[in-house]
Amino acid sequence: QVQLVESGGGLVQPGGSLRLSCAASGFTFRNFNMGWVRQAPGKGLEWVSTIDRDGRNTAYSGSVKDRFTISRDNAKNTLYLQMNSLKSEDTAVYYCEKGVSRGQGTQVTVSS
Q1: 3-state secondary structure labels for all residues of the chain
Q2: Residues facing residue 109 across a β-bridge
Q3: Mind listing the pLDDT tens digit for each residue in 47-85?
Q4: Measured torsion, CA atoms of residues 53, 5, 63, 89, in degrees rounded to the nearest 10
Q5: How far is residue 45 from each of residues 5, 13, 36, 39, 97, measured CA to CA in Å?
Q6: pLDDT-above-90 percentage for the chain
Q7: Are 70 and 19 in contact (CB under 8 A)?
């Protein structure tokens, strides 16, 4: 079955950086578009970014564009999200997503 395990979250000061990882298993990773979504406290799920199967095409929400970079390593079955210039409003649980499947998430807290 599909398994997605996120890691790399934590507490970071405004302006700082984090890199999230998502280890995928149970399916042929290289055959699927992948994405990241997030859920801030008290809010619904928000789409963050998507990458196509071979990593050539990416898309970002307006709130993270030019600060976040999505990437993947198909040899390692791993999805990444590099987050720079973090803001307090980026505080959320971040989930790796394949279609309707999501992992357990990793908490990102941006605070001084």
Answers
A1: CCEEEEECCEEECCCCCEEEEEEEECCCHHHCCEEEEEECCCCCEEEEEEECCCCCCEEECCCCCCCEEEEEECCCCEEEEEECCCCHHHCEEEEEEECCEECCCEEEEECC
A2: 11
A3: 999 999 999 999 999 999 999 999 999 999 999 999 999
A4: 180
A5: 18, 23, 10, 5, 12
A6: 100
A7: no
* Nearest Cα to Cα of residue 94 among 16, 5, 2: 5
Cα torsion 28, 80, 57, 48: sign = positive
Tokens 């600060």 locate to 67
Pairing state of beta strands 92-98 and 101-102?
A: antiparallel
- Residue carrying the six token digits 């970071």: 12
Q: Which residues are within 8 A (CB) of 74 and not within 5 positions of it... i.e. 6 or more apart?
A: 29, 30, 54, 55
